[in-house]
Amino acid sequence: MSRLVIVILAAMALRAETVDFARDVEPIFHKKCFACHGAAQQMNGLRLDDRDAALKGGYSGAAIEAGNAAGSRLIERVTSEKPGFRMPPAGSKLSSAEVASLKAWIDAGAEWPKRALVASGKARRSVWSFAPVRQPKIPDVNEAGWVRNPIDAFVLARLERESIQPSPGASKATLLRRVTLDLTGLPPTPQAIAAFVADTKPDAYERVVDQLLESPHYGERWARQWLDLARYADSDGYEKDLPRPHAWRWRQWVIEALNADMPFDRFTTWQIAGDLLPNATVEQKVATGFHRNTLRNREGGVKLEQTFFEETVDRVNTVSTVWLGLTLGCAQCHDHKYDPLTQKDYYSMYAFFDSVEEHYIDAPLAGELDPYRARHEEYMAKRRALLDEYHVTELMPPWEDKLRLAAKNVGKWTDWDITYDVLFQMSDGGHRYLWIDPAKRDFKQQEILTDYFIDWYHFVVTKERWNELKFKDLKKKLRALKESYPQLSQSPAIYDKPDPGPSYLHVRGDWERRGIEVTPAPPAALANFNPRGRATRLDLARWITSPDNPLTARVAVNRMWQEFFGRGLVRTSEDFGLQGEAPTHPELLDWLAADFVAGGWKIKRMHKAIVMSATYRQRSTARPELSEKDPDNSLLARQSRLRLPAEAVRDSALQAAGLLYAKVGGHSVFPPQPAGVTDLTYRWDTDRWLDSPAPDKYRRGLYIHFQRTSPYPQLMNFDAPDSNVAASRRQRSNTPLQALNLLNDPVFLEAAEALAARVLREGGSDFDSRIGLAFTLALGRAPDDFEKQVMAKTLDAWQGEGSATGRTAWTGVARALLNLDEFLTRE
Fold it and tell me: For the purposes of burial, counting CB atoms within 10 Å of the CB of 6, is it exposed (0-12), middle (13-18) or buried (19 or more)?
């Protein structure tokens, strides 16, 4: 029987019986059209899972034309034999009977009951994290004497249901080392240990906690976690991986904001949209440097529009991970496969950042402004004199005129085309500043264009002419002049274009293929969002921390918990969707989230509540009876033993040795690293890594210059993230490279030598007092008798080698201590 006859008979059968949407049509949309990968995108925004969207818009006008199957775009798609046009685009095509069902349904008026939402947003499987946060009742427990605060009640209630007892409390020395490392990222000093152990007052521990929360090193420790989320680095990434000399200024803001206990809702708003606040301050604009941590591709041939698209995509993905804990990036090319996140949701979020422009602002630190003002005019006069002397003043205006002309006549002068192309790639904003009247440019805009002209003028003249002009000498003189005068710190920041255009869905996530127009909005399945007029990033920021959004507070407190216990109550702290793990203690998570908001979004307040709990203060000793019942310690019947983060490993060694330079904030530094590391990357500058002199080379790991294509090896050996995407949690590996790093790296050799010298200098004259000091400095405790015997034998072995001096022998002991698992571990 021919296909045509089958279709006609099927249609006649359907017309003889009223077409039933649920029986005849909905299964086709659900199983064939919508469920197919990319189907909605092939239809240019047509969504067959949503009644209103399908009936209102889509491909070339009305998506489904009721009463006219013969002219239906939908029928044209499902019956086409054209690859890439036929719907569904993958898998088997619709059967003749299914096509007949669609035709009959359309001819009958395309009745679509409002209840039929197939798989749309709120009708999909419910996501636990999308439910409103409710503060649950604190549970009753049998062993109420163990409970120090509500956190313990939730933990103990779960343990009692499992017939498990919590662990005893840790020793005072262990607890002090634990909380000091957790709150400041540094081990306690011998003086702090002695004072705490001797303090018998009931509030001794709380007073220590309060002191640590007020320490300037608190902001450094917690900034590191935030920098992981923000994918912070000191270079662009990609092939050229140029340095970002001003990136540190945003890092400084983060440290200061955390030390000042800035409420998390304000901390959020400033970073997402500080520039849009009324009468925005310098610091509010600096905070938007969060968005400037995207990678930047400066390779030849890269297009401006493509780069802007990719960087905007990165901003959308980062914001959704950091504050919402969602894998929204999965919806860039198609609707999310598991969560109620559509591709339209993705590009509605994209629209918030579609008008962003980058720039640098003056962001002076304390003490910079007065010296700068006093000598700036003198500096400017000398700079102008140099530019005049080397003919830049006369040569640059005609160069600008010709460059603008070439930009309007692409292909007419290829050398000028290249110059304009590279202007975008190798300057920050030069492609925009070129079109500003020179009389209206500010100094920074003019400086960027002038420096570019000096660097790349040889593109449109000959290299010989460039050398004749001695522009290479000019570059050196301008750099030396600038370094000899006080300058203001600069900060990366963003602002919105004054006249943002429309935003579009990008078909299959392709930057060149525009689909339907979209307006700024967060994911529709999450919460109500009703801005006045076109929404802005400020509206987004306020919605993110609004009571209508159930995710942000849960995500934030879960990450805090993760840092104190090694894993979050939701282990997948980057994914609160259906593919993530459910919380082990859902009531505790909601109690923490509700309490965080009710307490004014105060981070220090929440940190104190956690470290004051009996749950946190438990011993970390493994318990054989729980090895099968709770191998991951998810029930929290003990504390967790955690390998120190990469930066803390180095910081602890320098602290024990007395070498650590404890200055807070400032520029990134270049400590010694193995020879040849920099040679593995693009050679844009032979002076890329010049070792910082003392004391800067002894600064904390937080401040080490992070070069994306050749990051500091010690950090990577100990599992620091690569800073290419937001890192919600760090891995903890155990590899031979780590042992080799601690044994052979010049930094750790120097630390061992300095620790030995310190022990000999401060530890008295007898072995017992010296080894006691060495243990206290390295491990935060005194050695037991067995350890003393082992260390005495080690010392004798070193001294028995004839040429070894006392300092060399003690260096061997120090190396042994700095390589112990206990040194690397937070108990």
Answer: middle
